[in-house]
Design goal:
By secondary structure, the protein is α+β, with helices and mostly antiparallel strands. It contains three helices and nine strands, in the order αββββαββββαβ. Helix content is 23%, strand content 37%.
Amino acid sequence: MMGKYIGIILLILIGFCFNSCTAFNQYSKFNKVQNCGEDNIFLCITNDSLKIKYQSFGGFDFANDSKEYKKLKVGKKPKFKNILLYGKSKVIDTDYYILIDNQEKKPGFVYKDTIINKIPITVAVSDSSNKINKEFLLQGLQISEE
């Protein structure tokens, strides 16, 4: 009889882990995307909870959670943990991650670390991107004025 209860508890714990274990940070659900810049040619991603803003090129598809990430057909699992935003462009063959409290530097990416409102944030851009695009995407993070 006791074994039956242990089995039920284990199933509940495993189910909870599958639903709550995600590579995306809890703040990612507060991301908002809108057109911005001169002639609205850029996309601005804001997160009011963290008081940050990120300016990206247009033509990117974004993921704020694991379900959206899978829809982009990037792969089964993201390359990082604690993801605030993932962006992918087929037009310029580039992808990037905005990460909170990133602890690892994986090969194939260039990085820019900063601290905004006492929160360590990293922008990781695929190294295969051309130099001008990498520089632009690495510089896109700023404090939100809203």
